[in-house]
Specification:
The protein has one domain: Beta Complex (Metal Binding Protein, Guanine Nucleotide Exchange Factor, Chain A), CATH 2.170.150. Helix content is about 0%, strand content about 50%. It is built from no helices and 10 strands. The protein starts with 9 loop residues before the first strand and ends with a strand. About 25% of the residues are buried. InterPro entries: DUF427 (IPR007361), DUF427_sf (IPR038694).
Amino acid sequence: MLKPGPSHPITVTPSPRRVTVTANGRTIVDTTRAVTLQEASYPAVLYLPREDTDMTALEPTESHTYCPYKGQASYFDIVTDEGRLSDAVWSYEAPHDAVPDIAGRLAFYPDKVQITEH
C-alpha cells in the first residue's frame, strides 16, 4: 500500500454540479452528490453515490484490479435493452485509508457512457 504525498497527490472534493450518466439512451445516474477524485496528473474521475444510481442496470462481474494508492476495485457491466457494456463501472468497496470518501461509490468509463455535468 502506498500513501499519497507530494510526488503522488490525491484529493477528493465534492462536485458543485449535477451529474448524469447515460448508457445506450438509458439514464443510469442522476445526482447532485458526486465527488471528484484528482490523482497526480491523471484525468479527474467522478465517483457517484449508489443511492442515486439505477442499480438494476448494473451486474457485478468477476473482474478486479488493484491500485496501490486506493486498493482493490470491483467491476460492473451495464445492461440495457440495446446491449451490455462490459466492465464499464468500477467501485472501491473498502478503499485504503487515504481515500475513504470513495468507498462504495461508482465510477464510469467515459468512453463507454455519456457523463454530463450540468
